[in-house]
Amino acid sequence: MEHENSAILPQLFQDLVADIQSRLDYEPVDRAHLDTTPGHKGQIQCTRDALEKERAISHLALDAFTLYAKGQLSRLGTRQNRHTITYCIPNEILSYILELAGKDCRARWGARVILNLSHVSRRWREVALETPRLWTCPLMFSTKFVDICIARSRNLPLDICPGARRYADRLHEVLPHRQRWRSLRLSYSPKDSKLVQPSLSAPAQMLETLHLRCRNTQWDKDCASDSKVLHRNPFRGNTPHVREVLLSGVFFPFTSPIFSGLLKLSLNSMQFDKVDTIYQLLRALEACPCMESLTFSNSLKFGPDVTANLQLLSTAPFVSLPHLQLLRVKQQEAEPALVFILSRLTTPSNSTLSINVLYGVDGLASIVPVHVRRSPHYNLQNLSSARQLKISMTTHYDDDVRFVLYGSGDQNLDSDSASQSEFSINFRKGIPLRDASTQLFETLGTVFPMPHLQSLCIDIHLNGLDHTPTTSTPSKTAFVEFLGRHPSITTIALSGCAPGFVKSLIITPTRRVCPALEEPSIRKCSVRNGTMRKLVASRPMPGLLLNQPDDLWGLQRLRIVACNNVIPETLSDLGLLLEVATDDDMGESSESGDAEEFFEDDNDWEWDDLPDSMP
């Protein structure tokens, strides 16, 4: 093939050159009559000019041949593409695929994704140009393409979402089309507030989503509050379709119609200086009976006037949110006024509650509303409907403890059901673990009731501290009283706990906690053989003892995992009385090599000092 090409190409190329020469009326040079002697300089220059023209014609021939070859290859590629599977996809389906790709990617990569999609092939470009939803975010493109983008979007609603970069100075480019805005998501600095205000000064009848973030690094110097309002009447009160509002570092009066009929509301980084603002917020929430998501986060603060006059708010109305799916609180410090707001909200049992407070927590009552005993129901019903509760305690330093409480109303803590009832409470205490855990168990079950609690899990991570009565064990009565408040518990899992936690489960003549307990699980605890024997002996299977109380169900199953102090003989003896699952059964290996020096049982709790009876 190479030999044939070498013979054919010169003739083809010469024919192409001759054709170009004829079209240009150019007479080729006769090289045989060229006189190149030094005495004929004029003739030499003429010859050089003639050869230069011939060389230029050869370049023209090469360019023409290359252009033809590229065109031919392009046509062949187009014909080849038409015989691929993707080319057989109808335009309507391809348009939908492009919409999905653009929707998922444009928030991160902006206009580049849409332009790349339109450059895949000629057909893709035609379909992209006829897909108006690809062009409904005009500020992703540079200023000179905004009008083109808006034209391609036809009359569809526009999304004013410039992405991660701040485009407050470009809002004027889309102001003439404000009547078509569907969403406005904008992040700006305080110095650009005057650029944002014009966009809020006229009706936006198609607006559905409003996200405004004023990011200020100097919080104390310029704080958004009810005394520093960005706009008194945003959009002139004409936003009938708004369903989602997020304000961060931005304050609007809660009397504005924009807070009516919302499905999602998020208030972040702002300060309440006036007591009336609390009333206005509650009335605004009352005007949103279909609210699905409510968030208070990122340094929501309250002025001294609000904090000092909380008692004046006792007449504030309760707000029922029967459709609420998520209530989220994320604060740097505990705020009593925010707890008051939570106390006026009535949420359904199948909702999710998330509370995360980093500092200033005196106890559960400082971050969660306290149950009023004269009230038949607790207002945050997903707390009172909990059936499972997991308590995680982690020590970061000797006097810093992190608590995570996770509860669920479902039988399975890992359930992914969309309608499940669950809550998580995350906070820190700047006191030793013993004192912090004592405070927790003293209030848990009283601040908010859990009458249906069936499963309890306690997980302790000491991070280098030893299990001693002065570090990890609560007071003598706190944990026992907590168990006494929840007689419906049937399963208890203890992980990394001191032996005193296990001892509290032993039934005595004067103490009968968790009579319905069927399955205790003990993992990585320093419990000893005698304690385990006493536990099982105090909770025999029904019918094994005479005069056994009817309300004492007896243990059905015992799990012991990675408890190095419990010897095999003890496990064998216990296996004669009930089903025992050990390390091998659970698929875990005991870490005997890393066992800590644990204290004897007698050093844990003084059992004679426990109360004679439990409530």
TrEMBL record:
Any Pfam family: F-box-like
Superkingdom field: Eukaryota
Every F-box domain range: 88-137
Region (Disordered): 585-615
InterPro entries reported for this sequence: F-box_dom, LRR_dom_sf
UniProt protein name: F-box domain-containing protein
Organism: Botryobasidium botryosum (strain FD-172 SS1)
